[in-house]
Amino acid sequence: MAELVFFSGTMDCGKSTLALQMHHNHAARGRDGVLFTRNDRAGAATISSRLGLVQHAAEVGDATDFWAEVIERRTQGQPVDYLIADEAQFYTATQVEQLARVVDELEVDVYTFGISTDFRARLFPGSARLVELADRVEVLQVKALCWCGARATHNARTVDGVMVVEGAQVVVGDVAAASGEVAYEVLCRRHHMRRMTAATARAASPSVATLSSAQGTLGVGA
Ligand SMILES: Nc1ncnc2c1ncn2[C@@H]1O[C@H](COP(=O)(O)OP(=O)(O)O)[C@@H](O)[C@H]1O
Ligand SMILES: Cc1cn([C@H]2C[C@H](O)[C@@H](COP(=O)(O)O)O2)c(=O)[nH]c1=O
Questions:
Q1: ipTM for the whole predicted complex goes beyond 0.95
Q2: Fewer CB within a 10 Å sphere, N or C end of the chain?
Q3: Which of 3, 59, 87, 107 is an active site residue?
Q4: What does each C-alpha distance from 34 to 73, 146, 159 come to in angstroms?
Q5: Which atom of ligand 2 is nearest to the CA of 39?
Q6: Residue 215: pLDDT band by 50, 70, 90 thresholds?
Q7: Can 87 be counted among the known catalytic residues?
Q8: How far apart are CA 111 and CA 99, in angstroms?
């Protein structure tokens, strides 16, 4: 039976890498898939992994109708066994419902990948609908780490190096942006709620320059 799976985690935890690996493994066994993405950091119509993999994908826009996308391909004689849907947090709730219908009525496996919550720790509309509708929500095995060493579960946004909690929900960016830009940092919940980034922690306690010194000075979960 086909399934709708939501692979979720913080930024920089390996979602796009896994998306491309899954595509590779399914394609290697003769299955036909279609790749989708929306607002990838590397540019339109691209799925990019920080490990260096880059692959062309169909760019999702507000007008994209996943049901129509699959029907059209099949009508043209192109088999569609599965969809890979990256940056799924940016999809609309209606698009996620289309994906669920593609699974249930067309027997197409749909593997979606995305962050659940934004920089304010609020669900994105696409992620909320995926949590509600997916057959399974899978948390990635590789842990992204907070500066304190605990598992990172939340995404912080910084502007000019300072953590912010107001602004547009969607600002495409990276965890390694240059200073002066909008950037992101993954944190554990405790430090997200305290608005304590690596830079803030270093300023408060200059000896906390590294993860091991953080563990020694403050203790994990300080
Ligand atoms: N130079 C590197 N060497 C080894 N692994 C790396 C390197 N750079 C990034 N990674 C791995 O890639 C992961 C990010 O993968 P990516 O697919 O881009 O994440 P996501 O799509 O979740 O933002 C990191 O968590 C890390 O495990
Ligand atoms: C937290 C947060 C993130 N984004 C953007 C930043 C990146 O472009 C993507 C996440 O990409 P990744 O492959 O998971 O690293 O989402 C945003 O627009 N708003 C946010 O609050």
A1: yes
A2: N
A3: 87
A4: 10, 34, 36
A5: 8
A6: low
A7: yes
A8: 10
